[in-house]
Amino acid sequence: MKSFRNHLSLIIALVSILFSIQIFNIVDRSINAYKEKLTKNYSLVIVSQNKLLPKELKAQVPNIADVIELSPEHVIKKLNTKISKNNMELLKATLPRFYKLKLSKYPSPQEIEKIRKQLLKIKSITKVESFSATHDTIYNLLLLFKTVISVLAFAILIVTVLLIFKELRIWQFKHNERMSIMSLFGAPTWLRSAVLFRLAIVDALIASAITFVMFSYIASSSWVHEQLQTIGIEIVVFDKVDDFLSALAISVLLSIFLAAFIVLGHKEEV
After folding, report:
1. Collapsing DSSP states into helix, strand and coil, what is residue 236?
2. Could you say which of 3.40.630, 2.60.120, 3.30.70, 3.30.160 is the CATH number of the domain covering 43-130?
3. Which terminus of the chain has fewer Cβ atoms in its 10 Å neighbourhood, N or C?
């Protein structure tokens, strides 16, 4: 029963680490997907006295994905619907030109400011509207959310690693007599500690399998998909190949590393 509790404690600790890592991956994918959505909806508006060529703008700012010239006709009509055709043409000729710029990625506030300065270097451009107040708020909220998740995941990682280390150390103390006897008979370190490594690897495999089942269920949950649709994004919640192999590699390597650390520490004490 005690052996089962030791196994269970180690498995729960490993599952906690894998769960935290996968949750971080989901959040990171969600934020990146949301940034792509924002990129499609976000644009800058520039005012120019002369006609601008897309090549000229892209040469100044490589991050520009598309340039759309805005027609002033609908604005003029809203101002006064009784304007004659001749006056309409005259007004259109005297008005500056307006362009909407689409970017290839969602920029940070610093990148927005850099783009604005680069555009203003073009002599004919008199104004750049970046809607910075709204943009900066959204960007900072995304950054804050990702930072909070990262800190929580890191804290869980540290605590669970210490727990795993403690469980393996307890297991080593329980088998210390057997390992000492094997040492007297000249058994090498790897052979004396083989059971410890086997325990670590088996529990890592079990933890990976539990994580696989857990996130496979979460990925197939209609509630999760509804939440993603609510914010208008689609992501891979759990890749049954890449994510599982990553989780397996992390759990096995971490378990082996901690077991080896304990074994080497024990060797130094003897």
Report:
1. coil
2. 3.30.70
3. N
